[in-house]
Amino acid sequence: MKFDTLAVHAGAQPDAETGAVTPPMHLSTTFVHAPDGHAPGGFHYIRSGHPTQDRLEQAMAALEGGAHAFAFGSGMAAIAAVLAGLPAGSAVLFPDDVYHGLRTLVQTWFPRWSLTAAYVDQSDIEAVRAAWTAQTRLLWLETPSNPRMKVADIAALATLAHERGAAVGVDNTFATPALQQPLALGADVVVHSATKYLGGHSDVQGGLVIVRDDAALAARVAAFRRDAGAVLSPFNAWLILRGLRTLSCRMERHGRNALAVARFLAGHARVTAVHFPGLPGHPGHALAKRQMRGDSGMLSIEIAGGREDALAVAGRLRLFVNATSLGGCESLVEHRASIEGADAIVPEGLLRLSIGVEDADDLIADLDQALAPR
Ligand SMILES: *Cc1c(COP(=O)(O)O)cnc(C)c1O
Q: Ligand 1 mean position to 81 CA, how many Å?
C-alpha cells in the first residue's frame, strides 16, 4: 500500500467483538487471566501495554517502516527512553540548534547518567566528522531543525555513523512520515512528539519511538517505558490514532500554505531572513527536495530591528495565535528567544511560525497588516 492509504488503514481493522469500524477505546487497567495464568488477549496491566495503544503502535510501525513502535506519554518521554538505554560513558552528538527541551534534559541528567554531549551543525557533514570521538555511540538528528529549518543529510550521516559503529536517531516531529522516512534512509530509530502533527489538533500529548530492526534497542525502550511508567493513556492513544487518518491531507495543506507564506515574506522589506527549505535560496533546499516528499508547515523569519520589532509584529497578528507548540490546524506564532529564556541561542528578532490549514490568502493578509509600518 502507498503511504496515504496506510495512513488511513494501518491499525484500523474493525473491532473483532462488535464490528465497530472506529477503534474502541479500552480504559481497563487490568486484564483477565485464564486459570493456567496466561492472558488470552496478551495484556496484563496497563503500564505494560493496552489495546488502544497497540493499534497506534501497529500504525506507526507501518507508517515509519519499522519493526517495533512504542507509544509514550510525551515526546520527551520517548526521547528519554532512547537515551536512558545508552551504556554509561557514551557520547551523543546533537544538532547545535537541538530542541530546547532536549538541551535541558541533557544538561540536567547526562552528568548523572555518565553520558556526554556535543553539539554540531549537522547540515555540515565535515563538522560532524570533526566532532566525532571514540566514545560517540549515538548521532541524534533533527531535520528540518528548530527554528532555522536546517536540513541534515540522513543517508550520508547514517553511513558515517554506521562505519564508526554508532547508531542514528532522528526526531521526525517536524516532517512526519508523510514527508520523510528516516528508517528507509538508514536511521536506526525515529522519535516523535505526537503532540504536534501526528495528533494534529493541539489537544493531545504523546510520543513515539519507532525502531527499524534492532531488537535489543527495542527491548530497552520497552523496558524503560514499563519501569519508568512513561506511558500513554488510552484516550490519548485513541486521539493520536484518529489524527493519523488525516495526516497526509493535513501535511499537504500545511506545506502548500507554508510555501505561499514563505514566498510572501521573502519579498517583504521588513523581513531580513526567511528560513524555509521550500525556498530555492535556503541552503538545504536541494537536499530537502531529495530527502522529503514535500514541505512541512514550519518556518521562521527574522524581523528588521530585533527583539522589540519582532514582539510588536507578533502582538499585531490577529489570525495567528501567539503561543508555543506547532502542528495544529490553527496557525501559531512565537518569539523563540522569549520561550527559550536565559540560555536562548536564537536571534532576538526571530519569530517561528507554525502554518496551519487555513486559507493561505487570509494568513498572508494577516502578516501583511502586522508588518505594515506604523
Ligand atoms: C515538542 C517537541 C518535542 C517534545 O515533545 P513533547 O510532546 O512536548 O514532550 C521534541 N522534539 C521536537 C522537535 C518537538 O517539537
A: 14
